Amino acid sequence: MATTFIYFPSEVQFTSEVPDITLRTDAEALTIEISGSNATAYKERLYPFNGHVTLRGVSSLLEDAMRAHGLSEAEFTIEAYGNTRSEHYASLTLFVVFCDRQLVGGYSYDMLMNNFLTDTQYKRISADGIDTLYFYAPARALISYYAWYTYRLPGDTHDRTWASIFSANARALDKGIFPIEIRIADLIAELAQRISRPVEDITVQAITIRNEDHLLTYYVSPQKPSVAFMFRNSFNLLETVYLWAKTIEKLKVERSVAVCNLRSSFYDQTNTLTYEVETSPMTVEEAKWVEHLLASADVRLVDPNTMALDPDTDLLPSVLITDLTSEIQDGREDMNIIKFTWRFADERPALRPPLPGRIHQDAFTPFFN
Question: Which tens digit of pLDDT belongs to each residue from 193-248?
Fold first, then answer.
């Protein structure tokens, strides 16, 4: 009896949907090896029971390997063999998209073909904000996208709409995850050029990005956000959340006092700087998305004023969310407010020098009226 896998994988699936995998064999022992992305995720010698070997926790093994290499998609090969690779050999190939959450009420392929790889269908963003959307596409699928604008001009009492296409007729050479770089200022400039109006005359209320059946709407705020974070979401991809919030900075100093020759001095001083954030009111859907930020293991601070100038994610400082209060209610009477505390991961206090050459660009506003 040959060694065979009792499992037939889909063309693409989430890692959370990969079940325990069973093999049928007449070998006395099997070496099981799971490899992909130039790394071995698992290798062990297993002994069959009643002619069967079961690999348990395969989804966790794949996710750990992908998380270690920063991957959101990967192809893994599961190999089984006896004393040598020529004895009782069998193999199985899996193409997976990272997802560390249980999918409820659907299948991964339907989710991938109808949704961007984010946990929300709309976002608030500033007029100069940037973001990256990711989506899965099979081989030869269209990877071009449309931008649907909702906007007003001076004197308008009703909304206007416009649609523009980007990367027209572009197609994927192979299946995989593809990015769409979103720069709201560039999209507004594109609209201004198309309708032959100056940017200053256009008040954009919303921009919907569409690729095939993938849809996401950005609601454009005329106000700058007070704080922004980049976090690794459920699909091991970095995305940006802009928050309109109130932040309280708290400094805690712990130190000891020593007395020598009738003089006191400090030693063993530790400075801890934390930031308490209270968001502006949010809808249920927006609050549930922000909860993914609070639960993420990889969070980085973004300066909303400089991100468009230097969006290099590797240079963004890592932060830790140390405390949070998130109680989301779905009633219509009150909006949701989330409170959380964060600090820099680096133990040294942060120093953020002001940018040179920009002191006269903003209108002066008296702090006290």
Answer: 999 999 999 999 999 999 999 999 999 999 989 999 999 999 999 999 999 999 99
Question: If you ran DSSP here, which 8-state letter would residue 16 be given?
Answer: G
**Residue 297, number of CB atoms within 10 A of its CB:** 9
Which pTM was predicted? 0.87
Could you tell me if 51 and 93 are in contact, meaning their C-beta atoms sit under 8 angstroms apart?
no
Contact 361, 224 (CB under 8 A): no
State the burial class of residue 193 (Cβ atoms within 10 Å of its Cβ: 0-12, 13-18, 19+). Answer: exposed
Q: How far apart are CA 229 and CA 317, in angstroms?
A: 10
Q: Which two tokens stand for residue 288?
A: 């549930």
Token code pair at residue 1 = 């009896």
Chain segment 248-303, per-residue pLDDT in tens: 999 888 889 999 988 999 888 888 889 999 999 998 899 999 999 999 999 999 88
Cβ–Cβ under 8 Å, residues 145 and 209: yes
Q: Are 320 and 293 contacting, i.e. CB atoms less than 8 angstroms apart?
A: no
d(CA 192, CA 194): 6
Secondary structure of 279-343 in the HEC alphabet?
ECCECHHHHHHHHHHHHCCCEEEECCCCCCCCCCHHHCCEEEEEEEECCCCCCCCCCECCEEEEE
